[in-house]
Amino acid sequence: MTHEIAVIPGDGIGQEVTPAAVEVLEALDAVDFDFVEGEAGDAVEAETGEALPQETRDLAADADATLFGAAGETAADVILPLRQVVGSFANVRPARSYPGLDAVQPDTDIVFIRENTEGVYKGIESEIADGVTTCTRVITEDASEKIAEYGFDYAKRNGYDDVTIAHKANVMRTTDGLFLDTAEAVGQDRGADYDTALMDALAMHLVMSPEDYGVVVCPNLAGDMLSDLAAGLVGGLGLLPSANVGEDNALFEPVHGSAPDIAGEGIANPSAMILSAAMLLDHLGYDEQGDAVRAAVEQVLDDGPRTPDLGGDASTGDVTAAVIDEL
Amino acid sequence: MTHEIAVIPGDGIGQEVTPAAVEVLEALDAVDFDFVEGEAGDAVEAETGEALPQETRDLAADADATLFGAAGETAADVILPLRQVVGSFANVRPARSYPGLDAVQPDTDIVFIRENTEGVYKGIESEIADGVTTCTRVITEDASEKIAEYGFDYAKRNGYDDVTIAHKANVMRTTDGLFLDTAEAVGQDRGADYDTALMDALAMHLVMSPEDYGVVVCPNLAGDMLSDLAAGLVGGLGLLPSANVGEDNALFEPVHGSAPDIAGEGIANPSAMILSAAMLLDHLGYDEQGDAVRAAVEQVLDDGPRTPDLGGDASTGDVTAAVIDEL
Ligand SMILES: CC(C)[C@H](C(=O)O)[C@@H](O)C(=O)O
Ligand SMILES: CC(C)[C@H](C(=O)O)[C@@H](O)C(=O)O
């Protein structure tokens, strides 16, 4: 069966790492993908006034899955609506360290399951008086239940024993109270082991003892920060893939941005993007191929060519070719 | 001139480290303090139904400064109103690593200047429908200006070249947009050097390269998380003091909590609390004595007795005596 994959490279190094991931997907046998490219980001905004043209929205909506690279200044105008287009309710962000790579904490293997529809991301803001502004953070029982269910299921499916529910219910008693109570009820229903953690204390513990954590279920903004924190533990954003998972659709993107400082030089690390493509494979049921791509990336990270962010002088193309070689 | 110091040990190890800090202050010549003790926390709530009795509020309000230890389950019910009682607008949290101590990042010297009156801490929450809750985050120009001014002044006074303004204005465009614009305007007015950083990216960079940062000016909740993150970098909460600074009053407390797991054993690390007392000395104009206390703590951390959290087997009393010896 042919799957249609929307490919949206976006800006900066998105233009370099997205084709690299597509090359890897094309190198797989037994996978039949039809790639359709769409535009988004600063460049298309400069040209047309719109960072995310309607054609690109339609493309992502109609595809079986989307690969997205990165966007520059317009990142929020591109990625937030794209997440809505694919109906994403869970942002899945694995952060793991790889043997042989320098990492602040070499023993990290954590997956952040970030609620992806509400919190401060609802965008409800106003200036209610001169110099007085508000942002209405929304937490619902439905969305909290859905993300907790997804998190507990993910942990079980992927062999993680530890589930941690992050919250700040000592201050946001009503909203994070609801998030916490709802997520705990899901854990109890499933008879699962879990812990709860205040997100500030959790930030400290993640830095000191990441090996104590497995799956971390988080409200939206907390997940944004905690997963970036964890990126720092394992050697930076060049290694972190992510999935935005909806009911019938999904979008895959590296956690990194468009990196304007190195864009155009052909030296961007394609690992995060290729690992995002591996998550896409899993999602479409190609588990074996997803594992093969991850194993190939891991092998190359261990003894293959490295881009400058990892201390080497290889190009994006060198790394991509090495990954394909390993497949 | 005699200063009246309110002393509120609170719960758990607060009962152990607070007297240690008072002992250190009493050992200083040229400092004339009158200590008056007040109750707060779980124990007094269990007894009276109130975690923060009116007498304790009055005590803190009338004192020249307050030393607060820690509270247990009632932490938010104690510390949030106490911060209001002293009119705190700036929560000052230095996070530095000490030579000779194990740290995830041994080259850290960062001071978080956390806005301390608004954001989600306004406590404006409601359940607007069954299973649908909101928290109204408030950001004002006045508070943003005040914290930015405090931050830039602090940096100048204490010899930090780098000021970073943390925000999430790409998502919270109106509220964090106001925070960011206002803080930037203060920096520009002063002709100061500063950077701005999205708080998620900042979390990553702080983990990887804390040496690149000096003073970080943050909205309230971001400051809560980022300063705990930094505690993880330097070896844990046992080392971090903090000040809650108001116009005419202030409260000093360790960043750590009541640590029920080790409370009552006499092995709590008093360093964070003693360093908080040093900040109190600075605040009341005893800069020389503040420096002396910091130097003594540093010396003891380097080659003196250590409590179990730092890998030693000394008691709270041993460390306190060693600090006093060094004075
Ligand atoms: C670009 C921004 C809107 C986005 C977010 O906050 O979700 C980014 O930080 C991310 O984590 O994907
Ligand atoms: C106890 C809690 C209300 C408090 C806060 O969130 O400010 C604590 O985390 C702190 O940082 O002092």
TrEMBL record, chains A, B:
Stretches assigned to the Isopropylmalate dehydrogenase-like domain: 4-323
Q: Which InterPro entries match?
A: IsoPropMal-DH-like_dom
Please name the source species.
Haloarcula salina
**SMART domains given in the database record:** Iso_dh (SM01329)
Q: Which SUPFAM superfamilies match?
A: Isocitrate/Isopropylmalate dehydrogenase-like (SSF53659)
Gene3D superfamilies per the record? Isopropylmalate Dehydrogenase
Domain of life, source organism: Archaea
Q: Name one GO molecular function term.
A: isocitrate dehydrogenase (NAD+) activity
Which Gene Ontology terms describe the biological processes this protein takes part in?
Answer: isocitrate metabolic process; tricarboxylic acid cycle
Answer yes or no on keyword Oxidoreductase: yes
Q: Does the keyword Phosphoprotein apply?
A: no
Which family, according to the similarity comment? Belongs to the isocitrate and isopropylmalate dehydrogenases family.
User: Which keywords label this protein?
Assistant: Oxidoreductase
Q: What is this protein called?
A: Isocitrate/isopropylmalate dehydrogenase family protein
